[in-house]
Amino acid sequence: MSFRVINFFMSKSFKTFLKHTAKDFHNQSVNPPVVRASTIIFKSMQDIRKTQAKAQKNPIGGHYDYGRQGTSTTHILQKILTKLEESYHVFTTPTGFGAVFLAIFSVTRPGDEIIVADPVYSPTRLFTEKFLKEFDIKTIFYNPRDLKTLEKNISKRTKLIFVENPGSNTFDFQDLGKILSIAKKNKILTAIDNTWGTPYFLKPIKLGFDMSIVSATKYYSGHSDVMGGSLAVSKRVFQKVYNAERITGLRLGPDDAYLITRGLRTLDVRLDRHRENAKKVAAFLSKNKKFKLLYPFKKNSENFRMWKKYYSGASGLMGLKIKSKNINSVRKFVNSLNLFGYGYSWGGFESLVLHQEFRETGNRKYLDLAKDEHLVRFHIGLEDPNDLIADIKQALRHLK
Ligand SMILES: Cc1ncc(COP(=O)(O)O)c(C=O)c1O
Fold it and tell me: Do 104 and 160 form a contact (C-beta atoms < 8 A)?
């Protein structure tokens, strides 16, 4: 079977690359087939050995002797993502959280310390703070608004700085360049969860990060029906992650790899539209005095400045910080929305909403939230933005 992945430099624009890459000329199909395999059959024992020798020489070349290492279907997705990330390689995992786990597990050992952004995705917080502690790996959280809390906590044991940008639910945009220069000065590895921006809007490996995580469950798949993750790496950490990946067996299956590859064909089109829709909704929300909009919209804000410095665009996920002593009115506002589904995740074609009450915000150390303040998260989908604004407008009458 012959596959062709078009050379990125030949196709100039990544938008064109996404549409033309990975055609299967053997089967004359626009998309490559799903190759499912546990056993991979060879012509002879010598052939197995030859493939293994090739894999040893070129571990990212797509030479497999067993299904756990992947098939051509996962290999194609990895090659496309490597071009999108402009990284040395991309590993694909069964979930986004699997990529978070793989990144941290690959580079930390008992006795190490890691410094993590305070507003990370709550399962990442739970994993680092509670689970890693049992393996004698200590986590210190830093304030995304005060990088002195990062710098002063660096010790000889610090192995990794783990950033999530923007912060989960509070959408704090951080000074990524400054974080990288602190890491460089102290010879510490860096990882970032870039699910919000995706490499379409921010390329962390080019910026200087060693590892970059994206939950493929979100914008890559784009249709709320697949789970997956990607971990882009620099050459410096490749071998460590490769060893950890093989030992843990954390690999995406071919059916999910196929669906994510299919989603990627329209990543640029969808993200451009999410951005435009979110901008219109943000313009409407920013005029309301009942809450603070958590999205890089107001040009004079610190958040806007930090976003503008590093990103080429913004996705569709935003938040509101609502001050109200009447929690029932906040609940009523959220429950009166007709076009926003209530459910976890985001990045699909449809709009979603979540209300996080104060008591549900966990044990963040630097959370800037009073007891009578509430966080509401919107994912702005691909609907007509005027319909979304009209829906929010009618629900807002309940907010007191
Ligand atoms: C920022 C961020 N990172 C990682 C994840 C984990 O991804 P998954 O749900 O694919 O495991 C999520 C999921 O919501 C997320 O929001």
Answer: yes
Given a contact cutoff of 8 angstroms between Cβ atoms, the answer to whether 303 and 175 are in contact is no
Residue nearest to atom 8 of ligand 1 (CA): 96
pLDDT band for 2, please (50, 70, 90 cuts). very low
Distance, CA of 256 to CA of 263 (rounded, Å): 10
Confidence of residue 8 (pLDDT cuts 50, 70, 90): low
**For ligand 1, atom 9: residue with the closest CA:** 96
pLDDT digits (tens, 9 = 90+) for 310-344: 999 999 999 999 999 999 999 999 999 999 999 99
pLDDT reading at 157 higher than 70 = yes
Please give the pLDDT value at position 5: 60
Q: At CA 82, angle to CA 217 and CA 266, rounded to 5?
A: 50
- List Cβ neighbours of 245 (8 Å cut-off, separation of 6 or more): 91, 102, 106, 251
332, 398 contact by CB (below 8 A): yes
- Whether 222 is in the pocket of ligand 1, judged by its Cβ within 6 Å, is no
Give the gyration radius of the chain's Cα atoms: 22
- pTM, full prediction: 0.96
Confirm or reject: Cβ of 257 under 6 Å from ligand 1. no
Residue 9 clears pLDDT 60, i.e. is over it: no
CB of 225 within 8 A of CB of 349? no
b/e per residue 324-339 (b: at least 16 CB within 10 A): beeeebbeebbebbeb
- Find residue 376's DSSP bridge partners: 320, 355
- Give the integer Cα–Cα distance in Å for 209 and 197: 15
330, 339, 368 from 375: Cα distances, Å? 10, 19, 11
Contact at 8 Å (CB) between 117 and 164? yes
Distances (CA, A) of 190 to 3, 51, 103, 141, 177: 34, 34, 10, 14, 12
pLDDT score of 132 more than 70: yes
Verify whether ligand 1 is closer than 6 Å to residue 101 (CB atom): no
327-335 helix and 385-396 helix, angle to the nearest 10 degrees: 150
% of residues, the chain, pLDDT over 70:
97
Q: Which atom of ligand 1 is nearest to the CA of 218?
A: 10
